[in-house]
Amino acid sequence: MNLLSKYDGTIHPDEWLRQIKTQCMIHINNQYYSNLENMTLEVAKSLVDPSINVNNVRSNDQLLTTLKNNILFKIFLKSSKQKLRDLSYRFNTCGDDDESTIEFLVKFKKLCDNAEIIDIDEQKSYLIHTLDIIYQNLFRIKIININTFDELLTSFQDFIIDQKCNIRYSYIVTIKHVATGKYLSSNNYSNGRYGCVVTLSDNQSDPYCQWQIIGQSLNFNNEIHYGNKIQLKNQMTNRYLYSANGYKSPATNHKLVFTNSYVTTCNWIVQFDNSVNYNGMWKLNDKFSLLCEIGSTKSLLRGHDFHFNIEDKNFQEVVCHNERFGGNDEWCIEFILKKD
To answer: Cβ of 9: how many Cβ atoms within 10 Å?
Structure first.
């Protein structure tokens, strides 16, 4: 037989006896034992800690009762409950986690089994408190109508996935133009006295396509709702996305879009498509529009298939406009970069 563990109170008796029975099933010796139950009982009794008297035990059920009436099992239950109270799940909202959700849920289920927590409300309470306090009430609301343990575990996984899709302040993202499939980009080419070029790039991995989302929130990891105001800072140039009245774009004479090296009075309002009333969470892969706000003046960010040249370089134009909302005004966050 494989090396069998002794029972010393550090494992749940049910689990320990299942392990013994599995090994006996593989290695049953009919010459010495009349059946599997008898073999399991004799092998198990020989592995029980000597401080527990099992001399008069005549069945596996009686053995389990004896072990569960012992003080070691009572200590084991209290210890398992304490481990549940101490358990925490710290997931990375941007990037990989130190521990996967499935690994965590396997650990949680094991501790519930060990502590013999079978009441669904008690299971909910323990699982809620594994989360950071900022997520506890959100998850509590999500599981209010859950009635089974399996549903609870599934809801937890869905909740974590959903949270990872929320866009947050300080994230570094790539912004895809839906109609062309290209990415909002900037570079160090000057537009004269207006700042540097903003264009569309074919290459998602181009570092000039990386933008950090800056906001007024003091908590850099707060989720962003539709209707919130943001600024976008290019990670390679350290310049901010900007548009200004009176400056014309080179190809179509719309409002010029460029980047400035200082924090500007230009805010970008995140809108779900073109809806000004929807205030849900801004999520990965949502289609949205960006409304440029300078004082009381507002205009939509647009990408289109018009080009212009600076020296020998050709660029695809990005503009702001006051025309009717159209397909060229749709963008999406396609990729969130892992933060340092």
So the answer is: 20
